[in-house]
Amino acid sequence: MDAIATLADHVIATRYDVLSEQTRAAARRLILDTVGVGLGGSTGQWTSDLFASSAGWGQGADAHVFGREGRFPAGLAALYNAYCIHNSEFDCLHEDAVVHALTAVLPAALAVAEARGGVSGRALIEAVVAGVDVAATLGLAGTAPMKFFRPAVLGGFGAVAAAGKIADLDRAQLINAFGAQYAQSCGSMQAHEEGTMLLALQIGFNARAAVESVDLARAGLLATQDTLEGRFGYFNLFEDGADLPTALAAMTGIRRIEDVVEKPFPTGRATHGAIEAVLRLLRRRACSEEDLHRVTVTVSPVAHSLVGRPVGSEMPANYARLCLSYCVARCLLAGDVAGAHFSSQALRDPQVLALAARIEVDTFDMAEPSAFGPSRVSITYADGTRAEETIGQALGHPSNPVSDGQRSDKFRANCRAALQPLEEARIVALEDRIADLDRLQDVRQLMELACPAT
């Protein structure tokens, strides 16, 4: 029996009443973060173009889209919302799995929940928990560097788990839905390499495919049964190395949503440790560009492969968000890294570009395959003095969590940045609604608050 059946069994067995309060709290916290990031992303790069180009893709008025009026076909809403969540690199992720764990999972679950109606907050929580378990477990099973973009491909499998849970699929239907999803799986690391907006779209494509795969399975489609371990299954085609039995065995005792990281900065996660190190150095000594004789950033080999790219004068915003030297230079000169630092004007700032070009990026000699830590920033000042800061787990990791105030501030700022900015009273009501998600009778009420009609 293929391991896809084990995942289907796990999804069916994931019920609200067996989840610990710690798991439920993690789900509420990350749903809040993801909804906020999606609202903020509704004004992100290429959103208007995407919306205009896809106007004829499907029919129906099933679900809401962040920042937009009206209702849209469920699959299209999942695509739009996943795109909005990832287009600013502000979305949460599971570091070790290298999966943006809710970015496809939550949009697919919300779209199916809105289309069905009467889906409770508790049902949404158990669906999101199951979806993250699936996506993260498959990511953790991979033991070689990525060729395909796991947040898209494995996010799609997680999205099927969540949407299938909402749709009350049985075991056979879930296995078929996973097979249908696999047939539509897409997303390469080339979009990450070039920093194009296709990176976020790849997650959207897989979120939409998940909604459609659930529909196909409900209609009786017989899809592939050996989806993970077959001769041409996922682990033989998409991964160069894997340890699936170990990842599956751990799934029985760990809810992966509890390990998911919240992002305090709208940049690639592999830049966050260095940004935090710079902030600590600036608290010890403020400086200008003239004060900086030499700046060296040292990260893990995997982090270097993700964000150790050269700075350029014509960088697209998404490339810059994944450029360690640009992010560190911005932080050194501005004392922060924020969304405004990735506007077309900000990306042409000659002072920042000049400093970024001088920053040396090195790697630790380490066997540990961690993608995101540790990070060290060393500064030699013009007066000859030297300072250094090393970060093990960057801010947002469960061992170095953001505060409740930081989380709320991020959520509220994203709500104000939406294409249709939310009024303060509505922001508070939405935040309260998610905090009390366990008692929500219909998920539609949440999305109606998040996406008001004007």
Q: What order do the helices and strands come in, and which of them pair?
A:
Layout: H1 3-13, H2 21-41, H3 47-53, H4 74-86, H5 105-116, H6 121-141, H7 150-166, H8 171-184, H9 190-194, H10 198-218, H11 234-237, H12 244-251, H13 272-284, E1 292-299, H14 301-307, H15 317-320, H16 324-334, H17 350-358, E2 360-363, E3 375-381, E4 386-391, H18 404-416, H19 424-435, H20 443-450
Parallel strand pairs: 1-2
Antiparallel strand pairs: 1-3, 3-4
Helix pairs in contact: 1-8, 2-4, 2-6, 2-18, 4-5, 4-10, 5-6, 5-7, 5-10, 6-7, 6-12, 7-8, 7-10, 8-10, 13-16, 16-17, 18-19
Description:
The structure is a single chain. 51% of the residues lie in helices and 6% in strands. With 454 residues, the protein is mostly helical. The chain has 2 domains: 3-264 and 404-450, 2-methylcitrate dehydratase PrpD; 269-391, 60s Ribosomal Protein L30, Chain: A. It has helices spanning 3-13, 21-41, 47-53, 74-86, 105-116, 121-141, 150-166, 171-184, 190-194, 198-218, 234-237, 244-251, 272-284, 301-307, 317-320, 324-334, 350-358, 404-416, 424-435, 443-450, and strands spanning 292-299, 360-363, 375-381, 386-391. A hairpin with a 4-residue loop joins β3 (375-381) and β4. The chain is globular, with a radius of gyration of 21 Å. The chain contains 20 helices and 4 strands.
pLDDT < 50 stretches: none
User: What's the count of strands?
Assistant: 4
Please list the strands of the largest sheet in the order they lie side by side. Answer: 2-1-3-4
Query: How is the biggest beta sheet arranged?
Result: 4 strands, mixed
Indicate the proportion of strand residues: 5-15%
Task: Please bin the fraction of helical residues.
Answer: 40-55%
CATH architecture of the largest domain: Orthogonal Bundle
- Rounded radius of gyration (Å): 21 Å
> How far is the N terminus from the C terminus?
52 Å
Order of helical and strand elements: HHHHHHHHHHHHHEHHHHEEEHHH
CATH superfamily of the largest domain: 2-methylcitrate dehydratase PrpD
What structural class do you assign from the helix and strand content? mainly alpha
Shape: globular
What would the CATH topology of the largest domain be? Answer: 2-methylcitrate dehydratase PrpD
| Count of separate DSSP helical elements | 20
Give the number of domains: 2
CATH class of the largest domain: Mainly Alpha
Organism: Phaeobacter gallaeciensis
Domain MmgE/PrpD N-terminal: 6-244
InterPro entries: MmgE/PrpD_sf, MmgE/PrpD_sf_1, MmgE/PrpD_sf_2, MmgE_PrpD, MmgE_PrpD_C, MmgE_PrpD_N
Domain MmgE/PrpD C-terminal: 265-432
